[in-house]
Structure prediction request, 217 residues.
Amino acid sequence: MKPTLTIETLQGEASKFAEMETSYGEPSLYGVTDGKAVGTYLEHKFTAYLAGIYEYEQGNSASGIDFPGLGVDIKVTSFKQPQSSCPFNSASQKIFGFGYHLLVFVYEKIDDEKNKTGQLNMQHTIFVEKERTADFQTTKGLLDILEREGNKDDVIAFINERNLPVDEIGAEQLADRIIETPPNQGYLTISNALQWRLQYGRVIQKAGEVPGISRVR
Prediction:
């Protein structure tokens, strides 16, 4: 019987997998420039690798994340422009995070002309705990307001200034929640769009330096 996958073993296997992938030439990746195709390749390969060793609940379109039992989603991004998209659920995600952890693989793709293979040189593998998945500037601004004895009106004004995708009633409800339960400092950069656009530059920079962001490899 296979052992059950845990968050700790997931991180350990992610480190091993990134090490193996860095030295592997893949013919199907040769000449591929589409980041989404590279991301799909790497996600499928990693989850198939894990499925051969561990028991775990596999993700599907209903759960929306790769490891629903662990509350972890995989993000794969290029070193040149470390960013990806994420389904929009509510404006509160920008303040309180996504409610699940992120395992971020950051690669540099190199094509081998002689062997006609594409190689993913894995630059960073980072685990972001769910408590740190909110937007950096938004949470920093709100925490500063609360520290300076800001009230509900100040919080609502800030929400409006930041153009959060929320109506008047939603802004009031958010403000109440922020005052009652101040958010954690987030470290992603999250841009408003039909889907959230996540940028990982700060996460890469801060990995291992702040609680909740670990450098797996």
